[in-house]
């Protein structure tokens, strides 16, 4: 079986690539990093190390690589013959790879018109849906109907912490033991891929929001609160009782929003929260708060990990989201000169003030109860520095 995977970075190799290998696929990685592609073709294998006490190792074999800038025709040929196509390139790169994927699918339509599923494994809501939209922008109208019949773009929710790292072996990657890969079965074309590690569900939305409201929301607390308090790493921040208190409060609020919206079992969700907090406390994973907190404008978006759960909490309970508002306040105060979005955010704050800047980036109306809560917490969080 043949898999084409866009993105040969740590997540692509350490998460998606390792599961594809264990499912029996030969994986062709597509990337623009020539050194990584060259190493993949020379070694045709790499090691994945679990970030835990015993440091269990998996050797991923049956791999190769294509530099999409230098050899796009080989990528097209790979898609023509592939049994599955996956991505882990980051939300902003999906539109960039869409044209090449479109060329591959059009070639497949002409030479091998069989079903194929393209799964975007990105840290975002609706990644595959976005990719499909961008791919179709490069497909003639007369081919789009046939493509929609043969080619599935099932959305997915993916979850695995892959810390920033530099290893002596360029291909080796360290990942946390825990992972979750949930895929929308209803959008699959043809046979459901037999990949141990994927959970196929008929309604993906509850799982996407559970992950978004718990893992992504939770991770912002040691990132933004930790950065506000002067910590450099997530691990350092997770040793502070104040951070842990805000994290627990934030996840209880976002958890209540989930329970009220989707009917998750309360006890089971509390167990899930404890598991997520335990993951952030893993001493074998050391991530910089600035890496986890990067892109604050996107993370303060109306449908993203902070504003969305806070809004749902307000709507479903009628209560003030105190801890979520604290974290939003810290995100709104986030300053890091090496992060373009952080610089842009602080420029908005300087020009418009905190209240107007929040309304702009979060799509909130003036007088919103959430805006009022965040303005209150901007003052409250100053005590964290004392």
TrEMBL record:
GO cellular component: cytosol
Keywords linked to the UniProt accession: NAD, Oxidoreductase
Binding residues for NAD(+): 3-14
Domain Mannitol dehydrogenase C-terminal, first and last residues per copy: 203-381
Biological processes per GO annotation: mannitol catabolic process
EC number: 1.1.1.17
The protein's enzyme class: oxidoreductase
Catalyzed reactions per annotation: D-mannitol 1-phosphate + NAD(+) = beta-D-fructose 6-phosphate + NADH + H(+)
PANTHER family in alphabetical order: ALTRONATE OXIDOREDUCTASE-RELATED, MANNITOL-1-PHOSPHATE 5-DEHYDROGENASE
Family per record: Belongs to the mannitol dehydrogenase family.
Name of the protein this chain belongs to: Mannitol-1-phosphate 5-dehydrogenase
Gene that encodes the chain: mtlD
């Amino acid at each position: 079986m043949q898999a084409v995977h866009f993105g040969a970075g740590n997540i692509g190799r350490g998460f998606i690539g390792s599961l594809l290998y264990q499912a029996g696929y030969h994986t062709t990685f597509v990337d623009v990093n020539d050194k990584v592609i060259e190493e993949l073709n020379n070694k045709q294998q790499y090691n994945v190390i679990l970030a835990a006490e015993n440091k269990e190792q998996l050797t991923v074999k049956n791999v190769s690589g294509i530099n999409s800038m230098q050899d796009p025709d080989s990528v097209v040929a790979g898609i023509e013959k592939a049994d599955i196509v996956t991505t882990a390139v980051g939300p902003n790169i999906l539109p960039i790879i869409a044209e090449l994927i479109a060329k591959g699918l059009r070639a497949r339509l002409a030479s091998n018109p069989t079903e194929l599923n393209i799964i975007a494994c990105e840290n975002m809501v609706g990644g595959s849906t976005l990719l499909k939209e961008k791919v179709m922008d490069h497909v003639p109208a007369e081919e789009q109907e046939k493509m929609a019949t043969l080619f599935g773009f099932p959305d997915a929710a993916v979850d695995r912490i892959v810390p920033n790292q530099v290893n002596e072996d360029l291909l080796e990657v360290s990942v946390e033991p825990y992972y979750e890969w949930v895929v929308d079965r209803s959008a699959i074309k043809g046979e459901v891929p037999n990949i141990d590690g994927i959970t196929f569900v008929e309604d993906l939305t509850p799982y996407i929001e559970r992950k978004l409201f718990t893992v992504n929301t939770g991770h912002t607390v040691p990132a933004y609160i930790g950065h506000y308090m002067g910590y450099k790493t997530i691990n350092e921040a997770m040793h502070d009782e104040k951070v842990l208190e805000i994290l627990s409060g934030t996840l209880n609020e976002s958890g209540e929003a989930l329970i009220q919206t989707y009917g998750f079992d309360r006890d089971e969700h509390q167990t899930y929260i404890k598991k997520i907090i335990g993951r952030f406390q893993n001493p074998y994973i050391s991530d910089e708060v600035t890496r986890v907190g990067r892109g604050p404008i996107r993370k303060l978006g109306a449908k993203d990990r902070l504003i969305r759960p806070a809004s749902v909490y307000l709507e479903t309970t009628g209560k003030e989201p105190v801890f979520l508002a604290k974290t939003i306040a810290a995100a709104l105060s986030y300053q890091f000169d090496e992060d373009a979005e952080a610089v842009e955010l602080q420029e908005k704050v300087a020009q418009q003030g905190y209240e107007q800047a929040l309304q702009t980036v979060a799509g909130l109306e003036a007088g919103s109860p959430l805006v009022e809560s965040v303005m209150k917490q901007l003052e409250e969080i100053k005590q964290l520095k004392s």
